[in-house]
């Protein structure tokens, strides 16, 4: 009975979704001519290259035009990590009973992940340093670095991610972001104002504060994701 | 021309259809499944469907990625809408945070009730 009801509901939801999206033609040019700056996207596409010297428009939107939003997003990620830690809180006396759920992995896995880990970390750092030039950025690079840590965590039973270190990296990255924002408020007038010289398009050192903020975001995301993985992998098995 | 239009309508149906199908599959899992992990997976599938829908709405026929590369600095005419992509970048990270917190709550519930199936957690019923 419940299944029938749910299926009827799904049919209704599916019908109205399809009906709505039939009104939005796929692939139609909705931003108009970028030169006349009538739409938000037209303004971004027209002005990003000249005003901020950032090749990747998405990066310019995420870090500069919507930088305050990104600060909030990073805060949500931080809150999720903190909430995860407090929900799965362990008391100190239980500490010696902590065991990894997974069994120790084979030596093939261990050697392989030891070889791969520096390469994965290097790829992640490359992705977030070049976030303003190529596809990618702080969030993506941080996620790549966290997968490297995940590989190490599941192949070495006693690999410790070092929570003090993670907290320091996370805090310094967050403070850098806020400090750059306040610096813009002091010197330029608005929060996260791009006060540094914009430089030349498609150079590594260009875009003013955008690469600095994205590198900080990369370190912060990497530390937070590694923290989440470490907490989730260190859950005490049931007695 | 006829062929092209037919092809285009197939692509439209495919992209929108798969996004809507993902949302419906996720909704089904959330409503029908009893295991909490499966419900969290359903939420993630809804997330994926919504992201696909966003990026699909921002797509422009024949458009390139909104990145200026050396040699085509004035290619802004052919680029797809960058705003939905930036929004999806935000939404993916928030989706990750939601999934992580939901999973930690599932772990807590499992430890407390010895089961992660909602039909066996008796204290929820009255």
Can you walk me through this structure?
The complex is a heterodimer of chains A (239) and B (126). Chain A has 239 residues and is mainly α. Chain A has one domain (56-233). Chain A contains eight helices and no strands. In chain A, helix 4 (67-87) runs parallel beside helix 8 and helix 6 (138-155) packs parallel to helix 8 (210-233). The two termini of chain A are 39 Å apart. The model of chain A has no long low-confidence stretch (mean pLDDT 85). Chain B is 68% helix and 0% strand. By secondary structure, chain B is mainly α. Chain B has one domain (2-63, 77-119): Helix Hairpins. Chain B starts with a helix and ends in a 13-residue tail after the last helix. Chain B has helices spanning 2-32, 36-58, 82-113. The longest helix of chain B has 32 residues, at 82-113. At the A-B interface, helix 1, helix 2, helix 3, helix 4 and helix 8 of A face helix 1, helix 2 and helix 3 of B.
Secondary structure elements and pairings:
The complex is a heterodimer of chains A (239) and B (126).
Chain A: H1 2-22, H2 40-52, H3 57-65, H4 67-87, H5 107-129, H6 138-155, H7 163-187, H8 210-233
Chain B: H1 2-32, H2 36-58, H3 82-113
How many domains of chain A? The number is 1
Please count the helical segments of chain A: 8
- Quaternary structure: heterodimer
The most extensive contact between chains is: A-B, 60 and 52 residues
Q: What is the C-alpha radius of gyration of chain A, as a whole number of Å?
A: 23 Å
Can you tell me the CATH topology of chain B? Answer: Helix Hairpins
User: How many β-strand runs of chain A?
Assistant: 0
The low-pLDDT segments of chain A are none
Label the structural class of chain A: mainly alpha
Number of helices of chain B: 3
């Amino acid at each position: 009975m419940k299944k029938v009801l749910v299926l009827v509901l799904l049919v209704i939801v599916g019908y109205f979704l399809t009906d709505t999206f039939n009104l939005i033609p796929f692939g139609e040019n909705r931003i108009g001519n970028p030169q006349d700056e009538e739409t938000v996207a037209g303004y971004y596409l027209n002005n990003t290259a000249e005003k901020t010297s950032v090749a990747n428009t998405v990066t310019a939107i995420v870090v500069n035009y919507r930088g305050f939003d990104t600060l909030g997003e990073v805060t949500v990620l931080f809150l999720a990590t903190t909430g995860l830690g407090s929900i799965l809180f362990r008391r100190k006396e239980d500490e010696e009973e902590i065991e990894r759920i997974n069994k120790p992995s084979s030596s093939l896995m261990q050697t392989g992940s030891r070889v791969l880990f520096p390469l994965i970390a290097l790829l992640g750092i490359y992705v977030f340093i070049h976030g303003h030039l190529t596809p990618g950025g702080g969030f993506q690079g941080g996620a790549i670095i966290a997968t490297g840590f995940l590989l190490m965590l599941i192949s070495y039973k006693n690999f410790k991610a070092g929570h003090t270190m993670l907290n320091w990296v996370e805090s310094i990255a967050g403070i850098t972001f806020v400090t750059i924002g306040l610096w813009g408020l002091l010197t330029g007038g608005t929060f996260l104002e791009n006060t540094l010289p914009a430089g030349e398009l498609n150079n590594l050192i260009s875009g003013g504060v955008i690469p600095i903020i994205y590198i900080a975001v990369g370190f912060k995301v990497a530390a937070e994701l590694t923290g989440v993985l470490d907490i989730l992998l260190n859950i005490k098995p049931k007695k | 021309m006829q062929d092209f239009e037919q092809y285009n309508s197939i692509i439209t149906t495919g992209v929108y259809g798969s996004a809507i199908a993902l949302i419906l599959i996720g909704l089904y899992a959330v409503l029908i499944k009893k295991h909490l992990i499966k419900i969290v997976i359903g939420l993630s599938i809804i997330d994926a469907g919504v992201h696909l829908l966003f990026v699909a709405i921002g797509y422009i026929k024949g458009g390139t990625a909104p990145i200026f590369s050396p040699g085509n600095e004035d290619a802004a005419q052919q680029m797809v809408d960058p705003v939905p992509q930036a929004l999806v970048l935000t939404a993916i990270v928030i989706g990750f945070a939601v999934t992580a917190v939901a999973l930690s709550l599932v772990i807590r519930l499992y430890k407390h009730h010895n089961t992660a199936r909602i039909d066996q957690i008796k204290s929820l019923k009255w």
